[in-house]
Amino acid sequence: MTTIEDTKTEAAVVAELADQAAENQRVSIAVGEVYLVRGAEGELRVVDTDAYAEHPRHKEAKRSVTDAKSFVEYVNRHGGPGSEVYAHTNTSKVVAVLDSHEGAERDPGWQKHRISLDLEHSKQWIAWKAADGKLFPQDEFADFIDDQWNDVIDPEPARMIDIARTFQAHTNVNFESAIREQSGDVNLSYIEDTKAKAGQKGNIEIPARIQIALRPYVGGPIYSIWASFRYRLRGGAVALGFKLERPELTLEAAFADIVTEIRDGRTDKKDGAETRIHDGIGAVPIFMGRPAA
Asked: What is the pTM of this model?
């Protein structure tokens, strides 16, 4: 007859034998090496112990920055003989492959260490571009001009503020006609539609074009861009808007200047004094296009 004490003794023996067997099967491996292991069904699989090493065998990273200065600093910090940069105009994106091939008859690179410059549009550019080509009721257009007047350099900001406030003050009017003057400006004639000022007439003059100073990308240069005023009279109401003139050319110029900044560095000038903001990437080649995925 087997007692509980006998069962405990047998279990202890089995456990001890199992521990001894496991101890005999333990094999020390060198971390950071690759092993070929046969599975339970006889198949072979690769086991990479790189994750257990103090340092990886090679660099592998995908980083993203939003300004040229940070991009240059990262490339100069981690770059080497095989580093190369790709600039793609249509997507406004710059990518550095820091471990690419070092050249003919030299060591190839893994091409797994990369950093991309993902440019962000400024809030001013986003605001003007969102309104580009649209026609707004006069009160909404007046609010837009009231918010963005300080981006306008021609005509002078004071006139833009006056235009905005005039439209805000004349919401209860019927617009009757629009006359284009020799200067190209447009005179919008209206008649008051309130009991207090019934029949009183007036006009609001709007410029044919305005010149705006915008920074397309955060941290990048400021550019001048023209916009044409647009209007439409319908049933006594006026709809107003503007159309930016070739904004894509401004974006292309801004991107080209950023690529130049990456290559040569940046020096700002103010009040006759020059301040070096950052150096460029030196001899690292820049190719127009995109690296393979």
From this structure: 0.79
